Amino acid sequence: MQKIYCIPGLGADHRLFSRLNLNAELIPVKWVEATPSDTPASYATRLLDQIEDEKPILMGVSLGGILSIEISKLIPTKQLFLISTIKTKHELPPYFSLVDHLPFDISKAASWFKNYGGMLKPIYNRISKEELELFNAMLKKTPDEFIDWGVHAVSHWDNELIASNYFHIHGSMDLVFPKKWVKDFAEIKNGSHFMVVDKADQISALINKELENIK
To answer: Which domains are delineated in the chain?
Structure first.
């Protein structure tokens, strides 16, 4: 059975992938501490110790997708599965450029997210109470400093390169990275930024089909 190294999104952990039913062994990549000066590129280098395969299959959601792309620049990869993410700086919504000009301290983003996480529910569309509880549980477990770093890292990502061996799955209702800015993806109808959980069956079917063609 093939292995897939899974990198979750910001504020999430291995539980994000718990509803996927894939014909592969899922190996979670754990977060390590980020320094304030880290970029996604430099942070990716410190995840390499967790990847044992010489030519791995990577799957990343949101920030995890960005880091999967950065890892693919460092080592050969067999396949990238990108979910609810962006591939280059050109797919980053323009409003992310306003992060440095907001009338409050973005470095305190974590405390806002954790205190008012329930208010983010509209961003994730019609997720159930159980799914919202999962989201909040993962968010509260994430160190504040890491959330603050991640918001800054995504908004300043300057990547222009993407390997050809990727398969991008994106939701039509993703409000974090709206599809109007994203190119070349398989669309999940009504999929939100949390669709790896609430649309897990559809995503699993797409990935399993791709796995059939990977030797």
So the answer is: 3-211 (3.40.50.1820)
